[in-house]
Design a protein that fits this description.
The protein is an alpha+beta fold and 391 residues long. It folds into two domains: 116 residues, Rieske [2Fe-2S] iron-sulphur domain (Rieske Iron-sulfur Protein), CATH 2.102.10.10; 201 residues, Naphthalene 1,2-dioxygenase Alpha Subunit, Chain A, domain 1 (Alpha-Beta Complex), CATH 3.90.380. Helices cover 23% and strands 25% of the residues. The chain has ten helices and 18 strands. The chain has a six-stranded antiparallel β-sheet with strand order 12-17-16-15-14-13, sandwiched between helices. Strands 5-4-3-6 form a four-stranded antiparallel β-sheet, with no helix packed on it. It is globular, with a radius of gyration of 22 Å. The two termini are 45 Å apart. The structure holds FE2/S2 (inorganic) cluster (FES) and fe (iii) ion.
Length: 391
C-alpha cells in the first residue's frame, strides 16, 4: 500500500505578488463570477445608492422607484465620468452625471441631458446605463459582471449546501431578516488568496486563536471547521455562548434545528465570501481585493432584529470574531512579504490538515488557464501557473 505524502506543494510565491496574475484574477474571477456587493438594507429607499469595487470596475447599486434593487456600471455613457464617487448616498429620482449633466432614471434610462431635445435621433434606451446582473440572497445583493453569468444557484447557495450537506440548513438562520449589529472594515496588507487559505485551515488555531479554541476546543487539534461535509464544531461544555469569554450570548435564532444548536459552521463561498453560523448570530466576511498585496475585508455581525432593537450590548459577542480577524489578518500580513522571497520561489507546503486547500489552488489556476473569451484577453500569452504573461 502506498502511503500518501504528508506534504503537498502550495502555489509558487509569485502567485501572491504578480500584478499580471492579479489582473488576470480580477478578470477571470472577480469580474466573471457572482460577487457579494452590499447588504440589501443599506439601500433603504428609492434613490439610495452605494458604489462598490468589483474587480477593476466600479458598480453603482441603487433602488428604483418601485423599491427594487438595480445595479449598473458606474460609468456615464456620454464621456465616461464616474456617476458617483462617494461610497454611499441618496441620489433623488435621477442619477445625474456631474460632468455634463446627462441624467438617468433609477432604472438606468437616459432621461435628460442638456440640448437633448435638439438631438432627436438619440436612442435613450441604447444610451442608458450598462446594467449588471443582480441577485439577492441572505439579505445581500450579489452582482455579476459577466455577459452570461454562471448559474447563481450553483455558485452561491450551492456552495453552502455542499459544505453543510443540506440545502436547507443555512436558510434556518434566517439571515435575510437579521439586522446589522456591527460592521468592521479591515485593510489587510496581504493577497486575497492568503486570506482564503487562512480561513480554510485551522492548523494555526491553537497558536494564534486562544479565545476561539477555548470556545471551540476541537480546534486545538487543527481540524478545520470545513474539513468534512456537514461538520459543525461543538461548543466547549463550559461555554454558554459564542462570546469572547464564553459567557451568555443571545437567544437561539428561531428557525434552528436542534442539531444546529451549540455548533459553529464555517462556509467559503468562492471567490470572496466567508460565512460563520452560530446559534445566535451570523458573521459574513466580504473581501475586496485591491492590489496583489492589499485586500479590504468588510465583516458584518448579524443579529435577530429584536436583539438589536433592545439595545443589548453586543460587544462581547462581536469581540470574539473581531479578535480572530485581527489575529488572522496579522498572520496573513506576516506571510505576504515572504511571498516575494527567493526562499518561497517554488512555494511552501501543506500539511495533511491543510490538504483541502489544494482544491482551492486548482480552482484558481484552472480559471486563470481557461481560454479567454474577451478580445482584450485573447491577445495575452498563457500565464496560468507560470506568471509569464501580461493581462
Ligand atoms: Fe457624464 Fe458627460 S461624462 S455627462
Ligand atoms: Fe484563523
Amino acid at each position: 500500500m502506498t502511503v500518501p505524502p504528508s506534504l503537498l506543494t502550495t502555489l509558487p510565491g509569485h502567485h501572491y505578488t504578480s500584478p499580471e496574475l492579479f489582473a488576470r484574477e480580477q478578470e477571470r474571477i472577480f469580474e466573471s463570477l457572482w460577487f457579494c456587493a452590499a447588504r440589501s438594507t443599506e439601500l433603504a429607499a428609492p434613490g439610495a445608492f452605494r458604489t462598490v469595487p468589483v474587480g477593476r470596475e466600479s458598480v453603482l447599486l441603487t433602488r428604483n422607484g418601485a423599491g427594487e434593487p438595480r445595479a449598473f456600471l458606474n460609468v456615464c455613457r456620454h464621456r465616461g465620468a464616474r456617476l458617483r464617487t462617494e461610497e454611499s448616498g441618496l441620489a433623488g429620482r435621477t442619477l445625474r452625471c456631474p460632468y455634463h449633466s446627462w441624467s438617468y432614471d433609477l432604472d438606468g434610462r437616459l432621461v435628460a441631458a442638456p440640448n437633448l431635445a435638439r438631438m432627436p435621433d438619440i436612442d435613450r434606451t441604447a444610451y442608458g446605463l450598462r446594467a449588471v446582473a443582480l441577485r439577492e440572497w441572505l439579505g445581500y445583493l450579489w452582482v455579476c459582471l459577466a455577459d452570461e453569468p454562471p448559474p447563481f444557484e450553483e455558485q452561491v447557495p450551492g456552495a453552502a449546501a455542499e459544505r453543510l450537506g443540506d440545502a436547507g440548513a443555512i436558510g434556518r438562520y434566517g439571515a435575510e431578516g437579521l439586522g446589522l449589529g456591527r460592521r468592521v472594515r479591515y485593510e489587510v496588507n496581504a493577497n486575497w488568496k492568503l486570506i482564503v487559505e487562512n480561513f480554510m485551515e485551522c492548523y494555526h488555531c491553537a497558536t494564534i486563536h486562544p479565545e476561539l479554541v477555548s470556545v471551540l476546543p476541537e480546534f486545538v487539534r487543527g481540524r478545520a471547521a470545513q474539513s468534512s461535509v456537514g461538520h459543525g464544531a461543538v461548543f466547549a461544555d463550559g461555554a454558554r455562548g459564542f462570546t469572547v469569554d464564553g459567557g451568555e450570548g443571545f437567544g437561539r435564532l428561531p428557525g434552528l434545528a436542534d442539531e444546529q444548536d451549540r455548533r459553529y459552521y464555517a462556509i467559503t463561498v468562492r471567490p470572496q465570501v466567508f460565512i460563520n453560523l452560530v446559534p445566535d448570530h451570523v458573521i459574513v466576511h466580504r473581501m475586496f481585493p485591491a492590489a496583489p498585496d492589499r485586500t479590504v475585508v468588510d465583516c458584518d455581525w448579524l443579529y435577530a432584529p429584536e436583539v438589536i432593537a433592545s439595545g443589548a450590548d453586543l460587544s462581547r459577542s462581536v469581540e470574539l470574531f473581531h479578535r480572530v480577524n485581527v489575529q488572522d489578518f496579522a498572520a496573513c500580513e506576516r506571510t505576504q512579504p515572504g511571498m516575494g522571497s527567493r526562499a518561497y520561489r517554488a512555494g511552501g507546503v501543506l500539511v495533511p490538515s491543510e490538504h483541502h486547500i489544494g482544491a482551492f489552488h486548482s480552482w484558481v489556476t484552472g480559471l486563470l488557464a481557461e481560454t479567454p473569451e474577451t478580445p482584450e484577453a485573447a491577445g495575452t500569452p498563457e500565464t496560468a501557473g507560470t506568471g509569464g504573461g501580461a493581462a
